[in-house]
From TrEMBL, chain A:
Single GO MF annotation: hydrolase activity
Protein species of origin: Zoogloea oleivorans
Source organism, top-level taxon: Bacteria
Keyword annotations from UniProtKB, A to Z: Chemotaxis
Pfam families: CheC
GO biological process per UniProt: chemotaxis
Name this protein carries in UniProt: Chemotaxis protein CheC
Keyword Oxidoreductase: no
Signal peptide positions (record): none
Boundaries of every CheC-like protein domain copy: 113-140
Automatic annotation (TrEMBL), chain B:
Protein name: GGDEF domain-containing protein
A family per Pfam: PAS
PROSITE patterns according to UniProt: GGDEF, PAC, PAS
PAS domain: residues covered: 155-225
Domain GGDEF: 312-447
Recorded superkingdom: Bacteria
Keyword Coiled coil (UniProt): yes
PAC domain ranges (all copies): 228-280
Coiled-coil intervals: 128-165
Keywords from the named record: Coiled coil
Biological-process GO terms, alphabetical: regulation of DNA-templated transcription
Gene Ontology molecular function, alphabetical: catalytic activity
Keyword match Transcription regulation: no
Length: 214, 447
């Protein structure tokens, strides 16, 4: 796979920044609380590289499970992506139980709570994807959300170890609740190429090999 | 019947398929049973027409999104409890069935349709409500348990501190009287640590003569589940003799069976000593430590009634010192006291231990001799006393001598009651004194 220029990476970051901003606004409306976003980081990593990156972002010694809300999208323009919303399990429980006004002390998420979390993730992810679809003037059909609770080490077990993944990572934190989550977009090589082509078009970047138009 | 509708009617989930215009194309049996419309009636209608205006607006929105943009959506029960007016089959129609709906775009014959999959989550809701109720109950139980535990710890600490500071010895013992707990004071009183005496009944620490009595009293308390209370003598390992008051009440286990006794051991030695000092003082003369007049007369009455029963004889002697006033006048009252003490000791010495000697008045002494009726023996005693009294008495700066007059009365010869015997002895004493005065040419008033 070819490497991307700094200009391309910046454009990619901006595209995700726009779409994730929409998602955060939606999330903020759901939980009726201000959500702070970190600056998105865009990286191209292997599956294991991503796992290591996620492990290193956890507090030392924590073996906290993560709640992963996953939707698969197919864009008519030819790329596919898995959009993943990640929250620490206790944080997800806090969101759901707060929304449902329930403080029952059950350690793990229940089936109905998991369903509610799927719906919340679904709204956030759909909002993010709709803004990408709008930007690219394409259509993206999405699967139903799937919620899983896993340790970081086994979080991406369903991906191929040799997969190259475009990771757009943005931190969302609810200041009032000391809770932070991540949004990841996982794409394979052809999708990355395709996605980048659309980003380039959007931002009028020069084609690879062309000199940039100044 | 088409394969599709056969399949749709066989699944335990609600399926509604809407075509690209949002009109109903599939309405499976599951939905028929829970809605008020048959598939035939619903076919071709929009959701809003099929269900009336009773649909959650979000259902309409996500259906629109699925058809227009190809998005999927989940409507969870938690956030949208009963989005469609569906009712439990065969049940009353007063409450909607609890639902969770998945909305997905599907391609059929090259056009985009929208599939609604509706799940009945009534049972899940019931199960989770029960789970949460149990969790809450558990939390409450846990809270009361931990509160109780804190209270228990506090009360245990309170008891331990109380036991440590208590001025009384506290102990706990099993039914065999083996101590399972002693506070510090109890260990001090007994002079043993709990570990030393843990496997032996505390009764075994008592003097051997008292053990049987106390043991049977303990056994009685165990058998009748009543209070145990005894005052016992106790020789401590350091050689000190004590009087202990031991009191204990039964302890019952959760089955109301007696599991042991809990009680106090108090050192009452001082109380006992004071009581015996008081008793001695009440019965004895403070100067000479001889019996006082009251006590002597009680002994006399007892001796007479005893003698009456066994037909024995009892002798009573009255001793009066001659010229005692002179010693007082010449040498002072302290010298008089020395003389009285010396005479008391001498009279005591010449008599048998069972004989009673009393200071009857100022310088008068009385002696009670049991079983001493015959004249020669009495004479011998009188002579012994006279000689003992007559020996010089050391006053420190000088020696003095003093004589005495002794009157005698014998039961039953000279009277059969205390008063007549006392009168007789008194008279005999005065007669003797008169004789001595006549012999020495002094006046009896000097006595």
């Amino acid at each position: 796979m070819r490497s991307f220029s700094e200009l391309e990476m910046d454009a990619l970051t901006e595209a995700f920044n726009l779409s994730l901003g929409e998602a955060a606004a939606t999330f903020s409306a759901i939980v009726r609380e201000e959500i702070e976003l970190s600056v998105p980081t865009i990286e191209i990593l292997s599956r294991d590289g991503l796992t290591q990156r996620l492990e290193s972002s956890q507090p030392a010694g924590a073996s906290e499970r993560l709640c992963r809300i996953n939707q698969h999208f197919n864009a008519a323009s030819g790329f596919q992506t898995d959009a993943l919303l990640l929250f620490p399990e206790h944080g997800s429980l806090e969101i759901v139980r707060r929304m449902l006004g329930d403080d029952t002390p059950i350690q793990h998420i229940t089936e109905l709570e998991q369903d509610a979390l799927a719906e919340i993730g679904n709204i956030i992810i759909n909002s993010c994807m709709s803004s990408l679809a709008n930007l690219f003037k394409t259509e993206m059909t999405g699967s139903l959300p799937r919620v899983q609770s896993r340790t970081v080490a086994s979080l991406l077990d369903d991906k191929d170890a040799s997969d190259v993944i475009l990771v757009a990572r943005i931190g969302m934190s609810m200041a009032a609740h000391n809770l932070s989550g991540f949004v990841l977009f996982i794409m394979d090589v052809p999708s990355i190429e395709n996605f980048m082509a659309q980003v380039s078009r959007l931002f009028h970047l020069p084609e690879p090999g062309e000199s940039p138009v100044l | 019947m088409s394969c599709g509708s056969l399949l749709g009617d066989s699944v335990d989930i609600g399926l509604i398929l809407l075509d690209s215009s949002g009109n109903i194309r599939l309405w499976n049996r599951w939905i028929e049973q829970r809605a008020e419309l048959t598939a035939a009636q619903a076919s071709g209608l929009t959701l809003a027409r099929a269900f009336g205006d009773h649909i959650d607006p979000r259902v309409v929105l996500v259906v629109r999104e699925a058809l227009d943009f190809g998005w999927s959506a989940r409507l969870s029960h938690a956030l949208h409890p009963m989005p469609l007016p569906l009712f439990p089959p065969g049940g009353e129609r007063n409450e909607r069935m609890k639902q969770s709906i998945d909305v997905t775009p599907v391609d059929a014959d090259g056009t985009r349709c929208c599939l609604l999959q509706i799940r009945d989550v009534t049972e899940t809701v019931r199960r989770e409500a029960l789970l949460k109720q149990q969790a809450r109950q558990l939390r409450n139980d846990l809270q009361s348990l931990s509160r109780a535990q804190v209270e228990l710890q506090r009360s245990e600490m309170r008891f331990r501190e109380l036991a440590r500071q208590a001025p009384a010895g506290l102990f706990e013992a099993d039914s065999q009287a083996c101590c399972t707990f002693l506070n510090e004071r109890c260990e001090q009183i007994l002079g043993h640590s709990r570990d030393c005496i843990a496997r032996m009944p505390w009764v075994d620490l008592l003097p051997i003569d008292d053990q049987a009595r106390v043991r049977s009293s303990w056994r009685l308390a165990v058998e009748s589940a009543t209070r145990f209370a005894e005052e016992v003598r106790y020789a401590r390992p350091d050689g000190k003799y004590l009087w202990m008051r031991v009191e204990a009440g039964p302890l019952r286990d959760e089955n109301e069976r007696i599991s042991g006794f809990i009680g106090t051991m108090v050192d009452v030695t001082e109380f006992h000593e004071r009581a015996s000092r008081n008793e001695f003082r009440a019965n004895h003369d403070g100067l000479t430590s001889l019996l006082n007049r009251d006590r002597f007369e009680r002994h006399l009455r007892a001796a007479l009634s005893g003698a009456r029963e066994v037909k024995d004889r009892v002798a009573l002697l009255f001793i009066d010192l001659d010229h005692f006033k002179q010693i007082n006048d010449t040498h002072g009252h302290q010298a008089g006291d020395i003389v009285l003490k010396a005479i008391a000791a001498r009279v005591r010495r010449v008599l048998r231990s069972e004989d009673m000697v009393a200071r009857y008045g100022g310088d008068e002494f009385a002696v009670l001799l049991n079983g001493m009726g015959d004249e020669p023996a009495l004479r011998a005693i009188v002579i012994k006393i006279t000689h003992a009294v007559a020996l010089p008495i050391n006053l420190g700066h000088c020696h003095v001598r003093i004589g005495c007059s002794i009157g005698m009365a014998v039961y039953p010869d000279n009277g059969d009651d205390p008063a007549s015997l006392l009168t007789h002895a008194d008279k005999a004493m005065y007669a003797a004194k008169r004789r001595r005065c006549e012999m020495t040419g002094t006046s009896t008033t000097l006595a």
